[in-house]
Recover the amino acids of this structure.
């Protein structure tokens, strides 16, 4: 067997795992209560054994989704800054944060148990997210695109408040309006000419 043939199953397995992760993320985001593993497998179009082969427990699936979303948020800050001005990057990052919050809807019970047991380091996640926000804020300050007196903690608290009163996806329009209002407050005041 050639080296390329030996890598193919791993690439297929990684692709299958990524596909299952994407479907599970969607299912959790749209669920009011925690969906069963069987429902997730059915939505992904695979047998339950395939899902369990990749994620042997509900906790392993929740952990994988949670970590994937945190990575998307942290790397997203840098990627967005490479594509657009800082204020626009901040607004788009807020949407990514909203997606992350929505994903947690259908896995909240499991997630809380995992945080309480120490399986997920909530403090580390908080630090990573605040660092991502700070990255965008710093770029915005340097470009005079965002106010200098705002902290990452201010933005995180505002986002949590917005997504508490306007959870996604059912209140998408309201959340978007509130995020736009927040962005208006993050821009520097116009200087008199």
């Amino acid at each position: 067997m050639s080296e390329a043939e030996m890598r193919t199953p791993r690439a297929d397995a990684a692709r299958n795992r990524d596909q299952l992760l994407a479907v599970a993320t969607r299912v959790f985001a749209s669920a009011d209560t925690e969906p069963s593993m069987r429902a997730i497998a059915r939505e992904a179009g695979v047998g339950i054994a395939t899902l369990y082969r990749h994620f042997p427990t509900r906790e392993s699936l929740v952990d994988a989704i949670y970590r994937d979303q945190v990575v998307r948020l942290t790397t997203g800050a840098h990627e967005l800054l490479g594509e657009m001005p800082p204020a626009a990057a901040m607004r788009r990052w807020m949407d990514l944060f909203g997606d992350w919050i929505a994903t947690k809807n259908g896995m909240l019970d499991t997630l809380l148990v995992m945080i309480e047991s120490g399986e997920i380091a909530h403090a580390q996640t908080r630090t990573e997210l605040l660092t991502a926000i700070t990255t965008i804020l710093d770029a915005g300050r340097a470009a005079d695109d965002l106010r200098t007196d705002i902290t990452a903690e201010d933005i995180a608290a505002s986002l949590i408040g917005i997504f508490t009163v306007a959870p996604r996806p059912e209140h998408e329009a309201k959340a978007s309006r509130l995020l736009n209002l927040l962005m208006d407050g993050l821009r520097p005041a116009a200087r008199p000419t």
The longest helix spans residues 3-30.
